[in-house]
Design goal:
mainly beta; seven-stranded antiparallel beta sheet; six-stranded antiparallel beta sheet; 32 strands
């Protein structure tokens, strides 16, 4: 596994106890979640499920029929729920969901082909939003400001949450385009404040503050009374360095700097293990470089939960709580001398009955067959938790596009995935197999060698506002399609 050419780190949170009392959801509270990494350490209350509406090919109906005419059908453009007539004109319905809930992500590859988007809330006949989809997804103005909304490597995204108390319907005036709409549905009885332009106008300062935070995702604010523990080690092959924290708290920031002759080999060959509260198995078990979301090697980018600075320092801002103790271990399996400098910022944390341990795992496969078609499983988990992100490293031996495959996410034993995507790059928030690197607080392409899509590609996506809770099981598959 350590020498595999195809690798990914899967980031998740695993619940250890039941969740607490129900609370209400306001526009302000939901928007504040967009930058709240500490909030991800608690299982959501009020509880919700996160699902996706998309333009996936509706011929995909039976996972047992593994053909291009069924389960791997690729006609993912122009698919909708239905067509309706309003004021003598046709509208194509993208999303129709009972609430209480909230839209938490909207993506398209070609919003100019969608025309006007309309969002209807709580059964009201007039839409609360009516504007060109390019304006909503392109950051065309308040409340859809950059970088909350914007185009990156030909993919158009808006992460502005749009809550609704009872119902939400989304339509467009044209049909021939690609789309994904991710939404939450809260547990029945949850009080949700519905979106309105008046409410958005009243919260312009909050939106601007969130936008400024997302524009500087690597910026870190020191928690009060935090302390730093260090590991500085020159590791010979087979040796390890260890940091122990023997008191309750949480890691709020981790930075690692590596010195090695072959950086790619060192970062893939050194194993990071993090164990919380004397558990029998580490909660984090990944190659060192993959954990920071930019493998292979050092590829500079800045996201909200992690990134790589210009001087090669890798950082993680995931909040990782523990009730009693934590152990961080770096083991050198690279076969060469590696210098490692680790800095961990430890602060106080109030452990509750909703607190979760941070988990990260890694899987690699080489060579990876592209025929016959297959669904490649990123991760499969039994238990309760919240999925918060992943990174994918591909070594492509040809210039042609490698990622036509759709993501398929199954929550709590679903027979049919409640997230069924339209292409691998669409899941990562870009489009049209674009090989231009891009950066954002939530999703990135730190590396794409070229020419075309030849060589090494690294992409990541962090589910912050669009995190995916599960109560009994979780499985993430990606079609290997090309």
């Amino acid at each position: 596994m350590m020498r595999a050419q195809h690798g990914m780190v899967l980031v998740g949170l695993m619940l250890v106890s039941a969740f607490g009392a129900q609370a209400g959801v306001t526009v302000e509270s939901l928007w504040n979640e967009m930058t709240d990494l500490e909030g991800l350490t608690q299982f959501p209350a009020p509880a919700y499920v996160c699902k996706q509406f998309s333009s996936y090919d509706r011929r995909s109906t039976d996972p047992e029929v593994k053909t291009d005419e069924n389960w791997f059908a690729n006609g993912d453009r122009g698919q909708h729920l239905r067509v309706e007539e309003r004021n003598g004109a046709e509208e194509w319905v993208l999303m129709d969901a009972d609430g209480p809930g909230a839209i938490v992500r909207f993506w398209s590859a070609n919003p100019s082909d969608a025309g006007i988007v309309r969002v209807y809330i709580d059964g009201v006949e007039e839409p609360v939003l009516e504007l060109p989809l390019t304006s909503m997804l392109g950051g065309g103005g308040m409340p859809f400001v950059k970088p909350i909304s914007g185009e990156r490597s030909r993919g158009w995204n808006s992460y502005l949450p749009i809550p609704y108390a009872r119902h939400c319907k989304v339509t467009t005036s044209k049909r021939d385009f690609y789309y994904q709409v991710n939404c939450r549905t809260y547990e029945p009885g949850t009080q949700v404040e519905s979106f309105s332009l008046e409410t958005a106008s009243a919260h312009e300062e909050l939106i601007e503050r969130i936008a400024a935070r997302l524009a500087r995702p690597g910026h870190f604010r020191m928690p009060p009374d935090a302390k730093t523990v260090h590991l500085d080690a020159d590791l010979a092959p087979g040796k390890e360095g260890v940091v122990d924290v023997g008191e309750p708290g949480a890691f709020y920031r981790a930075t690692v700097h590596v010195e090695a002759e072959d950086m790619d080999a060192a970062l893939r060959g050194c194993l990071l293990e993090i164990t919380f509260d004397e558990a029998e198995e580490p909660a984090v078990l990944t190659p060192l470089g993959d954990f920071f979301g930019a493998a292979p090697g050092l590829n500079t980018y800045a996201a909200l939960p992690c990134g790589v600075l210009a001087d090669g320092t890798m950082y993680a801002h995931w909040v990782m709580p523990f009730a009693r103790s934590a152990e961080v271990r770096v083991v050198n399996h690279s076969g060469r001398q590696v210098g490692v400098s680790v800095s961990l910022l430890v602060g106080a944390y109030a452990w509750t009955d909703r607190s979760m341990y941070f988990h990260a795992a890694w899987r690699g496969e080489y060579p990876l067959a592209t025929q016959p078609r297959q669904d490649w499983t990123y991760v499969q988990v039994d238990g309760k938790g919240v999925y918060v992100g992943d990174m994918l490293h591909i070594t492509n031996p040809v210039k042609q596009w490698w990622g036509e495959g759709d993501e398929k996410i199954y929550i709590d034993g679903e027979d049919f995935p409640s997230h069924f995507g339209t292409g691998t790059e669409d899941y990562y928030g870009y489009a049209w197999c674009c090989n231009e690197p891009f950066e954002h607080a939530y999703h990135n392409q730190p590396r794409c060698d070229g020419p075309g899509n030849y060589g090494q590609t690294s992409v990541n996506r962090f589910h912050i506002i669009d995190a995916i809770p599960f109560t009994t099981s979780f499985r993430f598959d990606m079609e290997v399609w090309h």
